[in-house]
Amino acid sequence: MEYQNKIIDESVQGTALELSHELNAEAKKLYLESYGCQMNFSDSEVVASILERDGYQTTRNIDDADVILLNTCSIRENAEQRVRNRLTEFKIKKDRNPQLVVGILGCMAERLKKNLLDEEKLVDLIAGPDAYRDLPNLIEEVGSGQKAANVLLSRDETYADISPVRLDQKGISAFVTITRGCDNMCSFCVVPFTRGRERSRDPQTIVSECKHLFDSGYREVTLLGQNVDSYRWNITAKGEIKNPELPTTNFAQLMEMVALVSPELRVRFSTSHPKDMTDEVLTMMAKYPNICPYIHLPVQSGNSDVLYRMNRGYSREWYIDRIEAIKRIIPGCAISTDIITGFCGETDQEHKDTLSLMDIVQYDFAYMFKYSERPKTLAERRFKDDVSEEIKAQRLNEIIDKQLAHSLASNQRLLGTIQEVLIEGESKRSNSHLCGRTPSNVMVVFPKTDAKKGSYVQVKITECTSATLKGEIV
Ligand code: SAH
Ligand code: SF4
Ligand code: F3S
Questions:
Q1: Domain boundaries in the chain?
Q2: Which ligand ends up closest to the CA of 224?
Q3: Ligand 2 touching residue 203 (CB < 6 A)
Q4: Is it true that 171-292 and 324-413 share their CATH fold?
Q5: May I ask the CATH architecture of the domain 15-150?
């Protein structure tokens, strides 16, 4: 089932990216495939931009490529396995064309470093998330017959000055990175090791990128960071002002600056962290109708002892308090989450606490995963991965079943309502239908009229499944 695949694991599906402009037969061709989170997709747009300046054009046809780059994810073992399988598929291409350059970018490059060159003899080049400006040099090094690597992490690289080449063909919705890295050290998570220290991007560059997107026809931006609530400009981690002569910006203020670009621009963001999400952010969301009433607030587990072992920095009670604040300040706000089943030492009762929390919150949507032990993380060093694969799978199924019921109920509540939908284009399944999202982020499919992509329409919801809505323009 499409929905199940989607919620179980996004990180294992690769997506090939291509520019929308005309192909130039002379240009060198870059084939870029992205795995993992939205930040990786956003980074691929930075990579395309850097290499475009160096004379490369992206192609969707891998057989045309002079350079193949995979932007990889390490979050779970299966995400890495998918990339390894993909690499072996490239072997025939390499045998046929020895000039072909194959490179690994992103989190696997950073995690495995030069080992990747030895381990996978097919790889010519590796570049970590903070080394993309160096890609033209690295490709040149490979051209002169060497293997090339740069996996240096930086304390201040944000690619703030690089205007990303937009690889999404629809031209309506764009990702805008606001922070890089993560300082949170959740015990299960590899991200602090692969992405380095947290740093925030200059707010002026964020706002001007959003203005530029709006002027080019975009109508939705999603502000991205591993923990958007800890965005801060001109403020230290301890909350002190760095330069008193300059303004400071926190996440709530940044969101307001972006919302003011135009009331016609939808503003979304991901990911919020329960320990840092403030009422100030919620109040700002309530103040601006164009900040979408949708929050992705990963809980991971509904049991305080498990949360403590996960080093998440909040308890079940704290999380429920944040949910209550959302429901109080933004009535009707959609809420989604991430859940891990079978974390180290998770008992049956602790698992039941996650199920009961789901009943309390009634999430509209969730991404659900089996715990996958990652090398070097706190959990790997401190705890035993002692929940059997079978139990992990069984618990995951229980959680998925509950979520499907909740998602269906959430969509059923929308039946008969009129929703404002931003048209993204034709429906994937039918060229006589259009599709777009509600403010709460649910996909709606409806019969075509002369309404244009990028415009807002009022749609009456008439049917639903647990994944999508159907309706008619009114
Ligand atoms: N910064 C975000 C999460 C980014 S990773 C946050 O803190 O919420 C996306 C999701 O992958 C996490 O929320 C978690 O549910 C899942 N995940 C991370 N590490 C994992 C692991 N080792 N095994 C299984 N799932 C994991
Ligand atoms: Fe990983 Fe935790 Fe950082 Fe999210 S907040 S990226 S789960 S360490
Ligand atoms: Fe994966 Fe790295 Fe994102 S590990 S989830 S691509 S930050």
A1: 15-150, 171-292, 324-413, 418-473
A2: 1
A3: no
A4: yes
A5: 3-Layer(aba) Sandwich (3.40)
CATH of domain 171-292: 3.30.750.210
Q: Annotate 364-392 with b (16+ C-beta within 10 A) or e (fewer).
A: bbbbbbbbbebeebbbbeebebebeeebb
Q: Which of 78, 107, 187, 338 to mutate to test the pocket of ligand 1 (most atoms within 8 A of CB)?
A: 338
Q: Amino acid identity, residue 315?
A: S
pTM above 0.85, yes or no: yes
Residue-wise over 326-342: b if at least 16 C-beta within 10 A, else e?
Answer: beeebeebbbbbebbbb
CA Rg value for the chain: 22
Q: What class has domain 324-413?
A: alpha beta
> What tens-digit pLDDT sequence spans the chain (474 residues)?
233 333 334 455 566 666 545 556 678 999 999 999 999 999 999 999 999 999 999 999 999 999 999 999 999 999 999 999 999 998 888 888 989 999 999 999 999 999 999 888 889 999 999 999 999 999 999 999 999 999 999 999 999 999 898 887 789 999 999 999 999 999 999 999 999 999 999 999 999 999 999 999 999 999 999 999 999 999 998 889 999 999 999 999 999 999 999 999 999 999 999 999 999 999 999 999 999 999 999 999 999 999 999 999 999 999 999 999 999 999 999 999 999 999 999 999 999 999 999 999 999 999 999 999 999 999 999 999 999 999 999 999 999 999 999 999 999 999 999 999 999 999 999 999 999 999 999 999 999 999 999 999 999 999 999 999 999 999
Q: Omega into 271 within 30° of 0, i.e. cis?
A: yes
Helical (H) or strand (E) element with 66 = none
9, 10, 37: residue to mutate for ligand 3 pocket, most atoms within 8 A of CB: 37
Query: If you measure from the C-alpha of residue 79 to the centroid of ligand 3, how many angstroms do you get, rounded to a whole number?
Result: 9
Q: Which CATH number fits domain 418-473: 3.40.50.620, 1.25.40.20, 3.30.230.10, 2.40.50.140?
A: 2.40.50.140
